[in-house]
Write a structure and sequence with these properties.
6-stranded mixed sheet, 14 helices
C-alpha cells in the first residue's frame, strides 16, 4: 500500500508540495486528505525518529516530542500537526506509510491550556497569625512568579495548593479540579519542590527516583526505568546517578528536586524558594531548567529573590502580610513606575534624614556608599536624578 502511495505521489508535480500553506491547512476544520497526510509524512526526516517519539510540525518547523506509552504528551503549541501511533482499533482509511509502529497523522487545533483560578483564599493559624487574607489570583500556563518577603504567606499558599494543609475559606480550581476538595485528583497532576526536603542517607539518585515513581503510581518497570533515565539526563545528573543524594551539592540537590517533581508528567508544578543558597553558576543552570519546563505547564515559582522572577516569569504577583499587593506582567509593573523613581548617592549618616523626608523604597551600597531610590510623582530636586525603574523598585514600592 505504501509503495502505491509513493508512486501516486511521484506522479504529482514537485511544485504542489512547495505550494502547500501549512498555516492555512491547519486553520481549517476539514480533515486532512490522504494526499496532504502523505506530503507531511514525506516532509519529515524519518531516519531521525526513534522508538517512543513523534514529530510535531509547528510554524512550518519540525519538533520531536517524547511519547509516554502509546499516548502522546500534550503538544506545547497551538495549531500543530502531529504523528501518532496507530491505535488498537480503527483503520484510518487503511493508510500505512511504513513509519515506526504505523505512525499516523492527526490534526490538533486550538489546544486548551490549563489555568489555576484562586478566589478569596484565607488561612489563619491557631496562634492568630493571618497567613492568607482573601487571596485571589489567575495563574495561566507558563512561569508564574510569587514574590514576597519572608513571612509574607507564600509558603502557606504553596502548601495549600499542594494539598498539604487546609484553607479556612475560599476556592482554588485547576481547570475542572477543585484543589481544596479533590486532593487525590490534584496529586495525580502535581509536581512539588518544597523549600526543604529530606532524602534517605545512602540511597542513590537513580534508586530514589525509582522509589518515588512507584509512590506516584508508575508501576510498570520498563516505563519507570525509561522515565527515571530521561529525567536524570534532563536535569544533568546522569553521570552522578549512582551517588547518594545526601552527598550532592546544593545545586545538584535542587536539580534532583526538580526531577522528582517532574515524575508522572505533572500539569501543575510548585517550586518554593528554589534558588536560595545557590551560587551564581548553579542559579543560572536552574534558571535554564525552569524556563524550559515552564513552556509546557503551570509553574508557580515562590521566592523572595527579585532576580528569580525577573529572569523567568512572564506573569507575577506580589504578596505581603497575606495580601496580594499586585498581580500582572513584570514589564507592565515597571512601566507604571516610569518617571516616578529617583536616585541619589548619599552618606550613611544621612540615611535617617532622607527616610524622614522622602518615600525611600530601596537602598543599596555601591563602592561602600549608599544609593537610595525614592518614589515621587514630580522631580524632588535636591540632587536626585531620574532612574529607570526595575522590578526591585516595583517590589519595594508595593510592600513599603
Amino acid at each position: 500500500m505504501a509503495r502505491s502511495l509513493i508512486k501516486r505521489r511521484s506522479a504529482t508535480p514537485n511544485s504542489v508540495k512547495k505550494r502547500i500553506d501549512y498555516q492555512k491547512l491547519l486553520a481549517t476544520d476539514e480533515p486532512l486528505r490522504w494526499f496532504e497526510k502523505f506530503v507531511f509524512a514525506e516532509s519529515m526526516d524519518k531516519s531521525k525518529l526513534k522508538f517512543g517519539q513523534c514529530l510535531c510540525i509547528c510554524n512550518n518547523k519540525p519538533k520531536y516530542i517524547r511519547l509516554k506509552n502509546s499516548f502522546i504528551q500534550q503538544p506545547y503549541h497551538y495549531n500543530c500537526v502531529t504523528f501518532l501511533r496507530k491505535p488498537k482499533t480503527g483503520n484510518f482509511n487503511s493508510l500505512d506509510l511504513k513509519l515506526p509502529n504505523s505512525w499516523l497523522l492527526i490534526k490538533r487545533k486550538h489546544l486548551q491550556l490549563m489555568q489555576l483560578i484562586i478566589r478569596n483564599l484565607s488561612k489563619t493559624y491557631p496562634n492568630g497569625v493571618k497567613a492568607l487574607d482573601d487571596v485571589s489570583l489567575d495563574i495561566p500556563t507558563g512561569m508564574y512568579g510569587l514574590l514576597g518577603p519572608n513571612g509574607a504567606g507564600k509558603s502557606t499558599l504553596m502548601r495549600t495548593l499542594a494539598t498539604l494543609q487546609e484553607a479556612d475559606s475560599g476556592t482554588a480550581m485547576l481547570d475542572d479540579i477543585n484543589v481544596l476538595e479533590q486532593k487525590d485528583e490534584v496529586r495525580r497532576v502535581l509536581g512539588y519542590l518544597p523549600q526543604e526536603f529530606g532524602v534517605y542517607a545512602r540511597i542513590s539518585a537513580q534508586h530514589m527516583l525509582d522509589h518515588l515513581a512507584v509512590l506516584k503510581g508508575i508501576t510498570k518497570n520498563s516505563e519507570r526505568k525509561e522515565m527515571v533515565d530521561a529525567l536524570l539526563q534532563r536535569v544533568n545528573l546522569w553521570e552522578h546517578k549512582k551517588k547518594a543524594v545526601s552527598s550532592y551539592s546544593g545545586g545538584m540537590r535542587q536539580r534532583f528536586g526538580i526531577a522528582q517533581a517532574l515524575l508522572g508528567d505533572p500539569k501543575l508544578i510548585i517550586v518554593d524558594e528554589p534558588t536560595a543558597g545557590l551560587d551564581p553558576g548553579e542559579r543560572n543552570r536552574f534558571y535554564n531548567l525552569l524556563s524550559e519546563i515552564g513552556e509546557h505547564v503551570i509553574v508557580i515559582l515562590s521566592t523572595h529573590i527579585v532576580e528569580d522572577v525577573k529572569e523567568l516569569c512572564s506573569n507575577m504577583a506580589i504578596i505581603h502580610q497575606g495580601k496580594v499587593q499586585f498581580q500582572g506582567q513584570p514589564h507592565a509593573a515597571m512601566s507604571n513606575l516610569a518617571g516616578r523613581v529617583w536616585a541619589k548617592s548619599i552618606t550613611k549618616s544621612e540615611m535617617e534624614d532622607y527616610h524622614n523626608r522622602y518615600h525611600v523604597i530601596s537602598s543599596k551600597l555601591v563602592a561602600g556608599k549608599p544609593i537610595i531610590h525614592i518614589l515621587s510623582d514630580a522631580n524632588p530636586g535636591d540632587g536626585f536624578r531620574a532612574s529607570s525603574p526595575d522590578l526591585e523598585d516595583v517590589f519595594f514600592s508595593k510592600i513599603l
